[in-house]
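hi! just following up on the protien thing from before. the input was this:
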Amino acid sequence: MIVALCVSTIGCASIPAGTQPSPHDPWESFNRSVFIFNEGLDDYLLKPVTTGYRYVVPSFARDGINNFFGNYSDIYTALNHLLQGNPGLAFKDFMRVVVNTIFGLGGFIDMATPGGLPKHKADFGQTFGVWGIPSGPYVVLPFFGPSSVRDTFGTAADVESDYLFRLLPDVAIRNTTTGLRVINARNNYFEASDLLDGAAIDKYSFMRDAYIQRRAYQIEQSKAGDEDEETAKSPFENPYE
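and the predicted 3d structure came back as:
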C-alpha cells in the first residue's frame, strides 16, 4: 500500500538531451521519476541515518552486524541454488551457515570465507531467470531501486519468504531488525555512492546498465553451475537481503 501510494505521487521525468535510449528501458521517463524519488529518500533519510550509524557504531561492530545478516542471507542463497539445480553450490552455502553459526558466534564473525567457503549471492529473481523466464523491461522500484519485471516478482518472493521480515512473531523485534538491515545495506555502499555522486556521468544510465549487465552475468553463471563469488558489495542489492 505504501509503495502504491508513493508510485501514485510520482510523475514522469524528462529524459536528458543527448541520452541514448536503451531497448531494455521503454519506461525510462517513469523510471527516472522513481529514481529521483529514491534519490531524495536517500539524501534526506537513509544517508543521514547511516552517517549517524557510522559515527555511533564502531567499525568492528558494524562488521559483525553485516556478517550476521550475510550469514542469514546465505540460507536463502542455498535454497535458491538448490532450486536452480546447483546442489554443489547449495551445499557450500549451507556449510557457510553451519560454520559461521557454530564457530562464528551466531554469524557475527565470518569464519567460512578464510576457511575456503566463499560467499555467493542468489535470489528468486535470479532463479526465475535460470528457469527461462525473460527479464522483461527494466524497472526502478520505489525503495528497492533497479529491477526488471521478472525481478520485481522475484523481490516479492524474497520478501514474502523472509522470516525476519514477514514471520518473526515479535513485531518490535521484527521492525527493529528490518530497520537495522536497511541501514546495514546502505552502509555497505556508503563510499561507492559518494563516488557515483561526484562522477561526471548520468547516474541513472550508469546504474541501469550496470544492473542489467550484472544480472545477466549472474544468471549465466548459475545456468552453467559456476561459482559467482561475491567479491564486492553492490548498490544494486535488495535491502532485505
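Residues 1-5, 231-236 have pLDDT under 50 and may be disordered.
The longest strand covers residues 138-141.
cheers
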